[in-house]
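Appendix B, record 7
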Amino acid sequence: MSTDTLSPTVHLIDDDQAVRESLALLIGTVGLRVQAWSDPLKFLADFDREGIGAIVLDVRMPGISGLAVLDTLVTQGVDQPVIMLTGHGTVEMCRRAFKSGAAEFLEKPVNDEALLEALQNAVHQHVRSRQRHQADRTARERYAQLSEREREVLGLIVEGLTNKEIGRALGLSPRTVETHRANLFAKLQVASLAHLIRHYAALVDADDAADGGSTA
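Structure tokens (predicted):
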């Protein structure tokens, strides 16, 4: 799994062996690993959903269509971007693919540069998305470590109150507020007020909204 994170993988699903081989060779020229699949059902059963990369999916295949595969991926919450390929494209097919969440829709014979550009954009998008999700998860884990009092102090910091104002609001001495402030900065691993607000203001707002909803 860690190797997938370091080296993005493109999953290529097409029932035509010649197409799989030529596209795999092309995609490899930009340093992307390729895992080719001839059977879309085997792909759905076995591919690594935790890996980083993108999916290149043929629309017309025996047994199950590429659009049905796309719908299954979306239903399962798979976040890897999907590029659809077809030799018999229609406006309706294209519209449906985008509506279902496809990142790109390309017609065969595929323009090499168009496919490589779409793939590189898709992989970069996926890497950024995973990084954001990881940062969000880390922030939530750190926020959960705060005591109730530290959360109260954090909420008032985010509102823009000074230590003295926070002390008056909570009935604490400025020195005690400063201690709570230092502790929460350490637990959240932030070095500045700007960093604190950028990464944790939304969690404070969500916490406040949840508290409000529970008392309503």
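Remarks on this record: The longest helix spans residues 112-143. Residues 1-5 have pLDDT under 50 and may be disordered.
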